[in-house]
Structure formats: C-alpha cells, structure tokens
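Dear support,

I submitted the protein below through the web form. The confirmation email said the job was done, but the results page showed an empty box. After a refresh the structure appeared. I'm attaching both so you can tell me whether what I see now is the final result or a partial one.
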Amino acid sequence: MKPRLYGVDLGCQRLADSDPWRCYNRHVGPHQTDQKRRLALAAPTWGDAGFFWALHGDLRVRAYLGGPVPWRRRFRRVRYLCQAVPGHVGWVGRGKPGRLGLVELSRHKDGADWEVSYQFAPKAWGRGYAFEAVGQALAYAREELGLSQVIAETQRANAAACALLLRLGFLEDRSAMRSGAEQVIFRKNIG
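What the results page shows now:
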C-alpha cells in the first residue's frame, strides 16, 4: 500500500519491494553535498532541536508566520522535525556560521500540491543562504521525488520572501486570506 498523508497519495514509489518508499528517504542527495557551496543541507537530528526551538520562538523569524509558536505546540513541532515522517522532507541548513535555517518539502494545506517552505535565522538574512537552500530543495524535489512543480506560500506583506521566490523563478499563482492576512501562493515548474 502506498504511503498517504491526510488521505492523500504522496506519489511515492519503490524501486523494488525490498526498498523503502522514496518519500521516506531523508538523506541528502549528491547535489546537496557539493563542496563549492557555502551551505549544506542535512537531515535534522535531535542535536538540532535547540536550534529549531529558538527559530520557532524568534519574533523576527516568525513575523509573517503567525508569530512565535507557543511552547506546547513548539515542542510538538520540534519533535516532528527531528523524526522521519512520511510525506515530509526536512533539512537543516548549515554553513560556516553554524546552523542557519530550516527548509521543508511537504504537502500544502490544499492537499493537491507539494510546498517548499523555509525559515532562516536573522544572522543568515541578506546573504543568499535561503536562495541556495531553496534551490537545493527544488533540485531534490525534481531529482529524488520526481515532482514537476512546487508551490510556496507567504504573506504578501513579506516583501523579502516574495522577492526571493520571484528570483528563484516562481510565479504568482493565486492569493488567499489566512489568519487575517493576505497570502500569496507562488508556483514553479521544475520538471
């Protein structure tokens, strides 16, 4: 039986009956270990829990994401990020200054699309790390998951995130109101 998340087929496949489902595979592909890159993406471990805790509680990071995550929900979120979860691929971005951010690929709220999302610590802002990390995640989505398109959602008021997504080749697809703020949903063909 194919893996499902919230009743939706994740589009995962096995090469042979003895192989695990590809969407469960949280390893970093060869395109993400290139030594010329300033940033490497790696599967989260429990050693990253403190970083995730701080990231989800940072007012500046969470300004356009509904504010800091309350501690009880933050505990569940950190546990989710540090465990292998079907239908979710997450990475911690590491660079010379240490842990820089979080990049995720998972099903969007609509259940029909795969979404790339990211959060970076303020020390990484304006230095191109998010551009590199999301680019690597898109390459993984195309090469490892076989996806042909990906979406990203952000608040229209988040000018930096909108500019980054446009720079990565995303196009505005539609908008929606969530939590009292206008959200823009961007789409990118990657296949």
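Response: this is the final, complete result; the empty box was a page-load delay. The CA atoms of residues 14 and 21 lie 5 Å apart.
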